[in-house]
Structures are given as structure tokens and as C-alpha cells.
Predict the 3D structure of the following.
Amino acid sequence: MAVNGSGRRSPQEIAGVLRERMRAGILRPGDRLPTQAELAEEFGVERGAVRQALRVLQQDGLLSGVTKGSPPRVAEQRSGPEEPQPTMVALAPRLTDAFAAPHVRVDAVCLTAQSLIPALGEPLRLIHEGRLRPERIDARVLLPSRDISLAFPVSVDAGSAEDDAVHQRWLAMRNAQGQVLQYNLQALRGTHDIDVHVTFRALPFTPPVKLYLLNGCEALFAHYMITRRAEPTDSGTLEMYDAVGSESLLFSFERRAGQRDAAFVEESQKWFDALWETISSDLTLS
């Protein structure tokens, strides 16, 4: 359906035409779109306008594989809500999808970066293979401050000499995992010329839940489940109340899934931004 001669289309109008083709079944889930050059010729615009239109459709969850390489495909539409899975299982594929965007934005509120590091393994591998090509990556991470008394992990024997040992163990993990996360992402600057920004800020409280916000389109939410466990040390065993975040069930909310999910994503982003801009403080991973 050529539209040459009908005037220059805006990116929003191009996205609207392609969206209508999907609704009409002309473009079906799994179909590959024409190339950017073909779309630019059809709509009588520059390729930049086509790229903007494709990004709009990607943000709406209608396209997958929007990269500099082959044309994207119409995304498979989910038939219903997925069952929640443990964070370690569910986070990796969603991060991989998020890294298909030209501008990747990841906001996280968590106790440590323990779950983020392995979950980033797959998108980083695909970047190194040339199958994902983001132009910019912005990661913002909120972690508890080193200067507060944590709600967890804490010693089972409150007020004992083990309190400080438990706190120092958590602090060492927070710093080491944050540094690994920062290094793995910032290394992409030199290897793939990607504009990467990784920033941490400190919270004045222990987050009872973990939250990941991906490209402003999806919110992943999990409760920290507190359990009693023992941690072997060189001097004995630390008995503590702690949370195993990697096993917490991760619930997904997507803008494209309807008004309820869209509202949850929007309010979660507002909550994160408010924490980031108000009561959080500078954090040094040392």
C-alpha cells in the first residue's frame, strides 16, 4: 500500500499505518517488516523518521528485534498473563528483550545486584556476537545505604557481636556485586562504542521488595521473602534472618497489557524517580 505523493508522514503517522496493518492481519505475528529503505521510499520520508516509528512500535510491544541489522518482526502477542517465575529465571529473557532497543534504560531497586549480574549475561553475549546493537545504555540502581541499620540481613541474636559481622558481610557483597555490574556494562564503551552510564544511589531504608523497570515499558516486581539461614565463616557460623532474592517470584506488568498494568508501570516509574531525586544520596562502592 504505497503512500508516495500523499505528503511527508510523521513518525507517529507511519507507526499508526503499520499498527493498522497489524490489526487488519496484513502483518501477522512473526512476519518480518520491509527494510527501513523500503519503508522510507513507501512513505516518502528519510530513514530517521522510519527508525523513530519503529521505536514507537517497539515501545508498545508490537515489534521484536529492532536493531541496526535485519528488519524487525511483528511480536508474538501473549494469550494471557504468564505465571510468575523466580527472579533468576525470569529476569534474563526480559533484559534481553529490553536490550534490543536503541536506547536501553534499566532502573532497579534492590538489596544487592546479585540477580542483575547473571541476568545480564545473555544480552551481553548477544552484543558481543553482534546480534544486539544498542546505541546507549542507562542503568540506575538504588541500594541501601551502608550507614543504616538494615531490617535484613540481621543476626538472629539481636544486639550480639554478630550484628556487625552480618552487616559487613552484606556491605562487602553490595559493593563487590555493584562493581562487577558497573564494569561489565561500562566495558561496552571500549569494545562496542556504546554510550554507557551506570549510576548508584543510596537509600535510607531497606527495600522490602525488589523492582526492575525496563525501558519505561515493563515493571518487574518481587517480594523479598525473609528466612532464617546459617552462613559459614572462618571463625564459625553466622545465624541470620536474610532474603534469597534470586528465588523471589517475579511478577511482570507491561504497558501493552491493558490499563491496569500500564498504570502500575507508570506509578512504579514515578516512585523510583521520586526516590532517586529526593531522599536517596550519593553512593560510593567501597
Summary: The CA atoms of residues 99 and 123 lie 6 Å apart. Confidence is low (pLDDT under 50) at residues 1-6. DSSP finds eight helices and 13 strands in the chain. The first strand starts at residue 63 and ends at 64.
